[in-house]
Amino acid sequence: MASRWDDLPLYAPECDLAKAVCGSNSKQWPSLVPVLEREGLPKIDPLMGGRYVPAVKAWFDALNGLGTKPEAVDGREDFSRWGKRRRA
User: Fold this and answer.
1) Contact of 35 with 43, CB cutoff 8 Å
2) In this predicted model, what pLDDT tens digit does every residue of 4-35 receive, in sequence order?
3) Cα angle at 51 between 49 and 54, to 5 degrees?
4) Do 30 and 21 touch, CB atoms closer than 8 A?
5) What is the pLDDT of residues 40-71, one digit of tens each?
6) Which residue from 36, 84, 87 is spatially nearest to 64, judged by alpha carbons?
7) What is the pTM of this model?
8) Helical H runs in the chain?
9) CA-to-CA distance for 63 and 79, rounded, in angstroms?
């Protein structure tokens, strides 16, 4: 199990993030996640099966006064409408 940010994969599973964020208190992570997600913690990517670690780290950095929080994903893109002309 990874315990440092630098040791985590790009998309980390919850058990690894829990250890990196909470250290020896990693068992608290499941109860913290719902609260943190309401505040903007990046969610688990369903395709990759983990949270995008650079975004999670940036979010925690901003939470503690280092930079700004990354914007939340606004939803799935619909590229099928690209190139179609709007009619007046």
Assistant:
1) no
2) 888 899 999 999 999 999 999 999 999 999 99
3) 140
4) no
5) 999 999 999 999 999 999 999 998 888 766 66
6) 36
7) 0.71
8) 14-22, 29-38, 53-63
9) 33
